[in-house]
Design goal:
Immunoglobulin-like; nine-stranded antiparallel β-sheet; five-stranded antiparallel β-sheet; 56% strand; elongated
């Protein structure tokens, strides 16, 4: 079934820092997207949901999330802000009612067991009842997490699929509606969970158009040594008309290094300013990510 995320500018989610630590600053998830006007019926692009800062709404300590949707050319189609509040096993989202007053509803409740349910209102008026069909667990990077299999009562608005403690529904974190272009969580990373890949994809921000890949041909790109200690070499030929840069990002989502590549066959980047640990790199060409991966500094 095609499903479409309800991008309601009033829908705002808020998460406090508790033991579950949903959406800590720097957390980012990548989701499959079938972008508008793309050739074929393919998940050819992606959307990100990134936690950018701590803030307050009506004295509630919250996290601000930015949802960014990309088209099949790697260009930004649109952005939306969400804010999330966590209280133990529950995650709440807020929306404004007809009087412009904030209303709090439950988005997830990982304390509920099989057969229990809860109701929230999407887009101000429509009630959505979510039933827990079953409860299980899964281990992510050595940590056991609660898994709920959700089912929505309403036709047209959904919050279902498998919901994982700390990640939310694996189709998309927020409720969605019919004709949604999304197709599930590709990968997620933060400093607590680490890196988690859910769907098979070359990279988290993989983009393609029909049979024409925007991802750089891997045979034309090599980044080495990896793991490394002090330097990394990028073997990719940059023409004089191209603007290609390398970004190295820490697990909190902060860009630590950004360097423009020159036309040399091999560009060498010094990494001595970085601490040992896991990082992520991406090559950006014409404001679109065309190659990315994980980099380990020892």
């Amino acid at each position: 079934m095609k499903k479409i995320l309800l991008l309601n500018i009033f829908a705002i989610i808020c998460i406090t820092a508790t033991a579950q630590n949903y959406s800590q600053v720097g957390a980012i998830g990548h989701y499959n997207v079938r972008s508008t006007f793309a050739p074929g019926n393919l998940f050819n692009s992606y959307a990100t949901l990134e936690t950018v800062k701590d803030t307050f709404i009506n004295n509630f300590p919250c996290k601000k999330l930015i949802e960014t949707n990309y088209d099949f050319n790697g260009r930004i189609q649109g952005r939306a802000a969400h804010f999330i509040q966590n209280n133990g096993a529950q995650v709440f989202f807020f929306y404004k009612d007809s009087t412009s007053s904030w209303v709090r509803d439950t988005l997830y409740n990982f304390a509920l067991t099989q057969g229990e349910s809860y109701t929230f209102y999407q887009d101000r008026y429509q009630p959505v009842t979510v039933t827990i069909d079953s409860v299980s667990s899964m281990t992510i990077n050595g940590v056991s997490r609660v898994v709920q299999h959700l089912r929505s009562s309403n036709v047209g608005v959904y919050l279902e699929d498998m919901a994982v403690e700390g990640l939310g529904a694996l189709f998309f974190f927020m409720p969605w509606a019919d004709s949604d272009p999304r197709g599930g969580l590709r990968c997620y990373q933060d400093s607590t969970i680490g890196f988690y890949q859910n769907l098979a994809a070359d990279t988290c921000d993989y983009i393609y158009v029909g049979l024409e890949d925007l991802q750089l041909n891997k045979s034309n790109v090599s980044i080495y040594p990896n793991p490394t200690k002090a330097i990394v070499n990028i073997n990719y030929v940059v023409t004089e008309s191209e603007a290609v840069r390398l970004e190295i990002i820490d697990v909190m989502g902060k860009i630590q290094i950004s360097r423009e590549l020159n036309t040399a066959a091999i560009n060498t980047i010094q990494l001595s300013e970085l601490k040992n640990g896991i990082y992520f790199y991406r090559l950006v060409k014409n404001d679109a990510t065309v190659h990315s991966g994980k980099l380990v500094i020892e």
